[in-house]
Each structure stands twice: as structure tokens, then as C-alpha cells.
Design brief:
By secondary structure, the chain is of the alpha+beta class. Helices cover about 20% and strands about 30% of the residues. The chain has seven helices and 14 strands. The strands form three sheets. It has a five-stranded mixed β-sheet, with helices on one face. The protein has a five-stranded antiparallel β-sheet with strand order 12-11-10-13-14. A four-stranded mixed β-sheet has the order 1-9-8-2. Strand 6 (about 135-140), helix 5 (about 150-165) and strand 7 form a beta-alpha-beta unit. It is globular and about 60 Å long.
Length: about 300
């Protein structure tokens, strides 16, 4: 990954006159599976824009910054609300009836640190009307619009105001002046219980996949891996799982022994399933440093 993330852009960095811009204990694999099926189904489709990890020396010039929400990704096509996996979201009729005809991309959200409660709400085949009254649809993209991301963000904010539905909110997008300002913004969000930040190129077109347009900036990186073996515990952990042997998407095999609760060790993620883990960067050999189990891979 290059030190300057804008190096990927064919348009190059923007000029100075342009924009300058805990850990959650979550659902078990069985609960996630009840929502949309197997872990393999949790992988996002090709039409979803995904974020890369922000490099430590990245320059935020040319980006718009928003908070990284601990919510559930949801896409609205003007008629149906669905998870990023493509599975339908069983939202109440009054909720979807209040959404516009325009396609939207965003996250269903209850608030900082409330992912587990949110997941418990959105996974039900029959929606809990009372629980859905607290859900907000924080949107950050107009997939059917053209132009630069900065223009689409402004149009999205106007659309949400015009719609007049309190649960539909445009996620604020703001420039930051420099690396120091970005660090202060990150610290403020983390201190308030947030996960981190998202940086979106102000000149980005509508795009999908992992490219130069979208970046996530967190104190810890997260990634997914496939469980390939269960390593037995010793001492206090005798008879329980000691560590998960996993293989990263880059093909690197390594063990994860931290971050697992006693319940996780008694009923560990199945061999062949995918998990999400946190880490503090990679070694020269590509092995995640200080890898720690977080949860089953996002099945929504």
C-alpha cells in the first residue's frame, strides 16, 4: 500500500483550493446464520464499495471525513431494503414507505456501542415494530447519481431534508485540514465511544470493490480469515479451545488465541467458517501483529 493513498487516483491529488478534508461483544455464529445462512454468504457482492485501511502517513487532503458507524450496511434500490449480502431486510412497511424512490447506500444504526441490539432487531423475519422505532438509516451514497462524491453528498443531504423522515439521515461529511486535524478528529470519536473514521475521496465517482476512493481509519485494523483448525487449550483451558488456526485472504496461516471468551472456547467458530479479527498491522511476512478474535464474520 502506498504511503499516499491518493497515488491510486488517475486524477492525482486535489489542489489546495479543493476539500481538505469497545470492542463489541456480538452475536454467535448461530445467530448470524439464522439471518442469512452460511458464513460464505456474508461476503459482499461486487457492487458494494469497501474501505481499505488508512496508512499511518496518509494525507487527508482531497477527502471528506465521516464517523465509521458500528451499524449494519443496508442498500435501498427504491423499492426494497437489503443487506450487503443481497438478503432482504425485514423492515416494517412504515419504515420503507417513508424512504425515497432514489437508490441509497448506508447503515442501519442504533447508536455507538449498540451493534448487538441492532443486530437483534434487524435479523428477525417478522419486524419488531417498537424496536425499529429507534433505528436510524444513516446514508452516505447516492448510487444512481453522477458527479463527484462531494456533489453527491450535498445532494444526499438535500434529499434527506426534503424527505422529512426522522429515521433517514445523511451522514455528515467534512473536510479536515491536515494529518494533525485528522488525528484530533479520530481521538474525539474514539473518546466518545465511536469506532473510527471513514475517508472518502471528494472527487470519487460512484464505484464498487476496494479501490482508492474509500478508507477506514481506526486505532485497530480489522480483517477476515477462514478457520482451518481448532488448537486445544492447556492448563486452565484444558478441554477447551486454546486458539483458532486461521488462513487470511492473502493465504497466510496463523493462530489467534486472544479475544476469545470462555463461551467462544466452549463452542468455537466451525472449521471452514469465517471470522473477523483485529490486528496492529502486518509483519514483513504478511502475518497480522497482535491478532485478536472479534466475532464471526459479518453475515448481513
Amino acid at each position: 500500500m502506498p504511503a499516499d493513498p491518493t497515488a491510486f487516483s488517475s486524477a492525482g491529488p486535489l489542489s489546495a483550493g479543493h476539500f481538505r478534508p469497545a470492542r463489541r461483544r456480538l452475536l454467535t455464529a448461530a445467530v448470524l446464520g439464522a439471518c442469512v445462512g452460511t458464513a460464505a454468504q456474508a461476503r459482499p457482492g461486487p457492487g458494494v464499495l469497501l474501505a481499505r485501511d488508512w496508512p499511518a502517513d496518509g494525507d487527508p487532503a482531497g477527502f471528506l471525513v465521516s464517523e465509521k458507524l458500528d451499524g449494519v450496511r443496508a442498500l435501498w434500490d427504491g423499492e426494497r431494503l437489503r443487506f450487503r449480502s443481497g438478503a432482504p431486510v425485514a423492515a416494517p412497511a412504515w419504515f420503507t414507505a417513508a424512504l425515497p424512490r432514489d437508490a441509497l447506500d448506508g447503515e442501519l444504526w442504533l447508536g455507538r456501542g449498540r451493534f448487538e441490539a441492532l443486530a437483534g432487531t434487524v435479523r428477525h423475519a417478522v419486524p419488531d415494530d417498537a424496536a425499529w422505532r429507534a433505528v436510524r438509516y444513516q446514508v452516505f451514497e447516492l448510487p444512481g447519481a453522477g458527479g463527484r462524491f462531494s456533489e453527491r453528498a450535498e445532494a444526499l443531504a438535500r434529499l434527506c431534508r426534503r424527505q422529512g423522515f426522522a429515521a433517514l439521515q445523511a451522514l455528515p461529511q467534512q473536510p479536515v485540514a491536515d494529518h494533525a486535524a485528522l488525528a484530533r478528529r479520530l481521538q474525539a470519536v474514539v473518546d466518545a465511544g465511536g469506532e473510527g473514521l471513514v475517508l472518502h475521496r471528494a472527487d470519487a465517482p460512484v464505484a464498487s470493490g476496494r479501490g482508492p476512493w474509500l478508507w477506514k481509519h481506526k486505532p485497530l485494523h480489522d480483517a477476515e480469515a477462514q478457520v482451518i483448525a481448532h488448537l486445544p487449550g492447556q492448563g486452565r483451558l484444558a478441554g477447551l479451545l486454546g486458539a483458532l488456526q486461521v488462513r487470511s485472504d492473502a493465504g497466510i496461516a496463523f493462530a489467534i488465541g486472544t479475544g476469545l471468551s470462555d463461551a467462544d472456547r466452549a463452542q468455537p467458530p466451525a472449521i471452514g467458517s469465517r471470522i473477523t479479527f483485529t490486528h496492529r498491522g502486518l509483519t514483513q511476512a504478511g502475518v497480522p501483529r497482535f491478532a485478536s478474535y472479534l466475532r464471526p464474520a459479518h453475515a448481513f
